[in-house]
Design a protein that fits this description.
248 residues; single chain; alpha/beta; 21% helix; globular; Metallo-beta-lactamase, Chain A
């Protein structure tokens, strides 16, 4: 994302595999592409440490002039990769971002673990980026929980929500950590946000549903629930969308 002249990546994952699962679609750009842009500073948000969100090879390849915003416990992982500009945050903490942006670390319902690490040894989080002109909420992975209503109450006027829509079946196993499509729409309503951008779908086969299925189901639910389709932006790989705040 380019917001107010600053560049942001959320959970960048450019590798061919997420530990074991092989990606089904190519990334829209590479780490070499990012370096070639000559961006003065790149900002990266990491939501948690699962392999499809925290990819060692991708992070190692990012430009030197990159700042990382991470939940509690993830700073040592970045420092071991030689990254020095790392802002570690707890839920409800805020930090100054690039070009007048403010970033707020917020709760979500999920968990964390990597090989050789205990369950929940590091924190998981969602993030809100606030610039003078636009507010963007990045949910990461999350189950549906009452926190969305509270976030919407405390931070009104969210313009865009990057909402996870993947790996939600079977429900008996996935329901706590991953929203299904109806729950993602409900969370969007709780946040009182204006535009919904589904994320993560179509990349890895991590649930019982086919990787491309969430996009189809989202379109069907929009029609069945008689929602305004203009508020849902299903992006193609590499598609560019202009970031505009909501109207009066």
């Amino acid at each position: 994302m380019r917001l107010g002249g600053a560049y942001w990546l959320t959970d960048p994952m450019l590798s061919d595999r997420a530990l074991l699962p092989k990606r089904k679609t190519p990334p829209a750009l590479t780490a070499a592409d990012l370096k070639a842009l000559g961006i003065p500073q790149l900002n990266v948000i990491l939501s948690h440490n699962h392999y499809d969100h925290l990819d060692k090879d991708t992070l190692a390849a990012l430009p030197e002039n990159t700042r990382y915003y991470v939940p509690l416990g993830l700073k040592p992982f970045l420092e071991n990769l030689g990254k020095r500009d790392v802002v570690e945050m707890d839920w409800w903490q805020s930090a100054d971002g690039h070009r007048g942006a403010k970033i707020i670390c917020l709760p979500k319902q999920h968990w964390s673990r990597r090989i050789g690490q205990d369950v929940n040894a590091t924190l998981w989080a969602s993030f809100l980026i606030i610039t003078p002109s636009v507010k963007v909420y990045f949910a990461g992975d999350s189950g549906y929980f009452i926190g969305y209503h509270e976030i919407g109450r405390l931070y009104p006027g969210i313009d865009y929500v990057l909402m996870p829509t993947t790996a939600y079946r079977p429900r008996w196993f996935m329901h706590y950590a991953h929203m299904n499509i109806d729950e993602a729409i409900d969370a969007f309503a709780d946040l009182k946000a204006y535009r919904f951008i589904p994320t993560q779908w179509g990349t890895f086969h991590l649930g019982d549903e086919p990787p491309g299925y969430p996009g189809l189901e989202l379109r069907r639910r929009i029609a069945e629930r008689k929602l305004d389709p203009s508020r849902f932006i299903l992006m193609d790989i590499g598609q560019i969308v202009s970031v505009t705040p909501r109207g009066p």
